[in-house]
Amino acid sequence: MSKTYSKQTYREFETEAVPQMDILFNYALRLTGSSDDADDLVQETFMKAFRFWDKYEKGTNIRAWLFRIMKNSYINRYRKETKEPGMVDYEEIANFYNTIRHQYTDQNDLQEKIFGGLLEDDVAKAIEKLPEDFRTVVILSDIEGLSYEEIAEFVDCPIGTVRSRLHRGRKMLQESLFDYANKHGYLSTKKR
User: Fold this and answer.
1) Eight-class DSSP state of 33
2) Which pLDDT tens digit goes with each residue over 137-180?
3) CA-to-CA distance for 163 and 155, rounded, in angstroms?
4) Residue 55 to residues 50, 64, 82, Cα–Cα distance (Å)
5) How far apart are CA 173 and CA 129, in angstroms?
6) Domain 95-187 has CATH 1.10.490.10
7) pLDDT tens digit sequence for 84-96
């Protein structure tokens, strides 16, 4: 017995869920390490989201809801493939930025033209060296622009923990990038 969907359901889904596809693909790419697998994971996420659209509470955080579906789908797939329940390599999940920053950008995107070269290799390396819990929240907040609530939903921890990790992660970056900032003139070398 299959469900029937109204035109209104299609419109709602298209208006709320579909605009989140790019950010979900970016994360799926890092999760899977493959463009084709990322496409499959995003497709699976959106199929499940559409199928359970009636369970989505309108007006709540659509991005967090979709991320949770994606994360659960990925973990389930990973467990099935490895046949080792409970063994998820979060190192693979946490740091997607370096993998996709140059390969999957639209060369006609104005924001990419303006900010594309902003994160030089030193900065990317400093981000990569952060412990995974801190790296994940820094990337999701400062690079992807997710809210604390969305990040908390994604990493499955309280908002206070997200804030703490973000603060500490930024402090670690500040310390590791001191020489870089001084070299590029972001710091005043005058003594007070």
Assistant:
1) S
2) 888 888 778 889 888 887 888 999 999 999 999 999 999 888 88
3) 12
4) 10, 14, 30
5) 9
6) no
7) 545 445 454 444 4
Length of the chain: 192
Amino acid sitting at position 89 = D
Amino acid at 39: D
Angle separating helix axes 62-82 and 21-32, nearest 10 degrees: 20
Q: How confident is the model at residue 48 (pLDDT cuts 50, 70, 90)?
A: very high
The CATH fold assigned to 8-88 is: Rna Polymerase Sigma Factor; Chain: A (1.10.1740)
**pTM for this entry:** 0.52
HSE, CB side, 13 Å, CA atoms: give it for residue 182. 8
Output the six-digit token pair for 183. 């070299």
pLDDT digits (tens, 9 = 90+) for 16-42: 999 989 988 987 887 777 889 999 999
Average pLDDT, the chain: 77
Domain range list for the chain: 8-88, 95-187
Residue 49 and residue 17 in contact, taking contact as beta carbons nearer than 8 Å = yes
Rounded distance, CA 160 to CA 152, Å? 9
- Please, which residues have CB within 8 angstroms of residue 86's CB and are 6 or more apart in sequence? 79
Q: ∠ CA 91-131-117 to the nearest 5 degrees?
A: 85
